[in-house]
Each structure stands twice: as C-alpha cells, then as structure tokens.
Write a structure and sequence with these properties.
This protein is of the alpha+beta class. The protein has helices at about 50-65, 180-190, 200-215; strands at about 5, 75-80, 80-90, 95-100, 100, 110-120, 120-135, 140-150, 160-165, 175. Helix content is about 20%, strand content about 25%. Strands 2, 3, 5, 6, 7, 8, 9 and 10 form an eight-stranded antiparallel beta sheet that branches. A two-stranded antiparallel sheet has the order 1-4. It is globular.
Length: about 220
C-alpha cells in the first residue's frame, strides 16, 4: 500500500535519514527526554524541533520493534515548515513513498501516517491514520483509525477522532476518543492472530500507554 507524502494531505487519512525495514502496574520503559530539560534543577535547553520529533518517532519504533514487527518508521520533514513532520514507513529507494508493513506471524499489515508539530519543545499530534489491512493494495484495508485536529467542513461535521470499518458502512465516521498506537497493536495481537515477538508484549504496551497518558496530561510549559 503506497502513497507519496504531500505535505499534510496524506496524513489525515489514516534516524534523521530514511530508515528501511529492519503506538497501571507496569515496568518502566526508558525513552529519550522529550522536553529539552533532563533532570530537575537544571536550566531548560531548547531542543531543535527535528530532534524532538525524532525522539517521538524513536519511541514508536521502540514499541513496534519490541512487539509486532521489524519494520521501522521514518521521520519525514514537511517542506517549508521547520516544526512540522510526518512519521511513516517508507518504501525503500523511493522519495517518501509510504507503505504498509507486515505484522509478525500474520497475514495482516499495518500502515501508519502520523503528523506532528513541535511547539515549545514538545511534539503535538496534528493527525494520524492507522490502517489495518489484509493486503498491500489501497482497497485491502479492514479498519482505519483516524484523527485530525482540523475541523471538517460545516456541511459534514464528523467527529475529529473516529474509526472506519470496511463494509456497507465504511463511509461512516464512527466516533472514538484519541486512539494510541499501542491499542491498535494490542487489538492486532488479540483479534487478528498477530504473533507477538515476546511473551512480555502486554507489559511493554501497558508501560508505553502509561507514558502516553502521562505526557498528554502534563501541563504545557
């Protein structure tokens, strides 16, 4: 499933160099410092937007590669926008051609398109599209979890966070809350017979989810 990234357009449907094939009571996962300030009592040092966005992409890759796939996501700069980036799996030897990737031990595939903007040293989601499919063609999708922070047209005010399910009602935007990638991976393992790469997959996803909710609730500086 391939599409060329064009600004923000492709992201609404859903390592600095491109990366090829290679998202409770829980253990602690260690990730890079997102905020640009590591440790209390120190003066905050502003991190370049690309470095902040890359840390977020690294976090997603860490979760993906420890649980369901060897594929890796690439940070894609948005031309003319130094603080805006897209994160997706890129087809080898192409100019930002986005592709789905195989999930471990299963016939299903996943495509990720996640757009972020860095403001005050923190990444903020502009949109995401997580597409679970049973093939590598555009129409092979089964479920699409999508979110955008930009309101739709007044004539069709569908919910900003929603899910599409293939079938007679595929066009409907079924409302959801924000869906973390970790829950999509959890669903794929439990419902689609994806074979996790480790017996500790649940603890890994729970720890990453706790980090996601903590960062969402953290006050802006």
């Amino acid at each position: 499933m391939r599409r060329r990234a064009r600004g923000w357009v492709w992201a609404r449907r859903s390592s600095d160099a491109p990366t090829r094939l290679a998202s409770s009571t829980i253990p602690t996962l260690t990730f890079p410092c997102w905020s640009g300030c590591c440790g209390s009592g120190r003066t905050a040092i502003a991190q370049p937007p690309r470095k902040v966005a890359q840390a977020f992409a690294d976090r997603l890759n860490d979760v993906l590669n420890r649980t369901v796939t060897d594929a890796r996501l690439t940070l894609i700069p948005i031309p003319g926008h130094d603080t805006q980036f897209s994160i997706a799996c890129v087809e080898p030897d192409t100019k930002w051609s986005i592709t789905s990737f195989a999930l471990h031990g299963s016939h299903v595939r996943l495509e990720i398109s996640h757009a972020v903007e860095v403001v005050d040293g923190r990444e903020h989601t502009v949109s995401y599209a997580y597409r679970l499919s049973d093939g590598d063609k555009k129409d092979d999708w089964l479920i699409r979890w999508e979110h955008t922070r930009h309101p739709p047209k007044d004539s069709y005010p569908y919910p900003l966070s929603h899910v599409h399910v293939r079938g007679e009602c595929a066009r409907l935007h079924i409302p959801t809350s924000r869906v973390p990638l970790e829950l999509v991976l959890w669903h794929a393992i439990v419902e689609w017979d994806v074979t996790p790469k480790t017996h500790d997959w649940r603890s890994i996803l729970e720890a990453s989810l706790a980090d996601f909710y903590q960062r969402r609730s953290a006050p802006a500086r």
